[in-house]
Amino acid sequence: MDQRRLVRVSKYLSKHLRHSPDRIGITLDQAGWVDVDTLLDAARTHGFPITAAELHQVVAANDKQRYVLQDGRIRANQGHSVPVQLDLPVTAPPPVLYHGTVARNIAPIRAEGLRPMNRHHVHLSPDHETATRVGSRRGAPVVLAVDAAAMHTAGHEFMVSANGVWLVSHVPPGFLRFPG
Questions:
Q1: Per residue in 19-52, pLDDT tens?
Q2: Which residues of the chain have pLDDT under 50?
Q3: How far apart (Å, rounded) are the C-alpha atoms in residues 131 and 79?
Q4: I need a surface site. Which of 27, 100, 155, 178 has the fewest CB within 10 A?
């Protein structure tokens, strides 16, 4: 599969496994899973046929490891705006985590901290490099450091998804370090 097709299939999966499953007539179970055959049938019925081989290639080749295949089912690892319970265990975070954003978001973040917006959790990166890549999707990146150790000590619960993205309900501004 060429790179353009790989990206198109990945974006299609992201849209329907994280945000709009009903748009193609699929129903995610409580943990976000859907049967692979059901997904492939729905995609074909709605004008975007995907082969099983393409699906496996996208899951294996996705640079962010957004999806997981297990027992004939697929789900997105995180980033849902539809109700799901990923059942990830609460985990002690590393001392520092990172969040990539852009300059236009800094003023509201200084005032309110990091909020999940239309998702279930705030997404944090384990390293500066990953946060830089995340922030650069929307312009020149600004990377914020999160004092995860202090947040954990204060009672905030962290989880880590299968692809290494750290999840937390909110990051109050007092736990953020801004560059410069």
A1: 999 999 999 999 899 999 999 999 999 999 999 9
A2: none
A3: 15
A4: 155
Where do the domains of the chain lie, and which CATH numbers do they carry?
Answer: 3-76 (1.10.10.970), 96-177 (3.20.170.30)
Dump the DSSP string for the chain: --HHHHHHHHHHHHIIIII-GGGGT----TTS-EEHHHHHHHHHHTT----HHHHHHHHHH-TT--EEEETTEEEESS--SS-----PPB-PPPSEEEEEEEGGGHHHHHHH-B--TTSSSEEEBSSHHHHHHHHGGGSSEEEEEEEHHHHHHTT---EE-TTS-EEES-B-GGGEE---
- Tokens (6 digits) for 130: 């990953």
Question: So what's the pLDDT on residue 1?
Answer: 77
- State pTM to two decimals: 0.74
Region for 124 from its dihedrals, namely left if φ exceeds 0, alpha if ψ lies in -120 to 50, beta otherwise: beta
Q: Say if residues 34 and 17 touch (Cβ distance below 8 Å).
A: yes
Q: How many residues does the chain have?
A: 180
Which pair of tokens denotes residue 145?
Answer: 């450091």
